[in-house]
Amino acid sequence: MRIAIDINGVLRDTVGKISQLYQKHLVDESQNDSDTETYQLDSSGNTELEIFKPFKYEILSEITSLNLREHFAFQSDEELYDFMYRDFPMQIFGHAGSTEMSSMNDLNEFYLDIRDSHDLLIVSDEIGKSKPATLFFLSKFGCLLEKIKFFSNSTKKSMWDELDILLTANPDLLLNYPKNKIIIKFETSYNKEIKNDLTISSIKELKSIIKNLNL
User: Of 94, 98, 104, 119, which sits with the fewest C-beta atoms within 10 Å of its C-beta?
Assistant: First the structure.
């Protein structure tokens, strides 16, 4: 069987790193900005005072979904995209911490245990510069797996074609997957409400889940 491990939320604390960088580079820095006073002439030639209030960056709520604009104040979808994939891709996708202290070690042990009977691969939803940053993340933590599959919305079907079992924290993948595939949920703060028969909260649990499937 072909078993795929999703990176975000399972191996990498991507959302935690986004929150950290948002606080540091947007919230904390914007607090130093003050209202700007400017003067302009109205239609009668009188001077009017205009006060410009900068956009307020703030963390709106705890992370309960992957719709990041529900939880972080951005001025537009384009600003969110720039933040993640142009301004801080290496910091977010390369330097994020692992979800658990031993995530990669546990995955490597699982790989060594099953590689003779099953194929194991890494999959991840990546865009642009997040791809080399993700390769850096995997290298930094010493990932031993040989195969890595990056996908996007337009290439998601080809991702499903290459696996039989997927371990993921992504709500969209948990809710929308081919019925001939097996899905295992890695529980996080943003997918707790999604019910799934196969659920784990640690990579250490994956071995017993696969064993109980009797594949």
Answer: 119
Residue that finishes a domain, picked among 93, 123, 152: 93
Is there a single domain that holds both residue 102 and residue 204? yes
* pTM exceeds 0.85: yes
What does each C-alpha distance from 111 to 32, 38, 114, 175, 192 come to in angstroms?
49, 63, 5, 26, 27
Q: Per residue of the chain (215 residues), give pLDDT as tens.
A: 999 999 999 999 999 999 999 999 999 987 766 555 555 555 565 666 566 678 899 999 999 999 999 999 999 999 999 999 999 999 999 999 999 999 999 999 999 999 999 999 999 999 999 999 999 999 999 999 999 999 998 898 889 999 999 999 999 999 999 999 999 999 999 999 999 999 999 999 999 999 999 76
Q: State the DSSP code for 134.
A: H
Q: Length of the chain, please?
A: 215
Q: Assess whether 65 and 149 both reside in one domain.
A: no
Q: Is residue 141 exposed (0-12), middle (13-18) or buried (19+ Cβ within 10 Å)?
A: middle
d(CA 30, CA 59): 13
For residue 88, the tally of other CB atoms under 10 A from its CB is 21
Q: How far apart are CA 91 and CA 21, in angstroms?
A: 8
Note down the domain range covering 170: 2-14+96-212
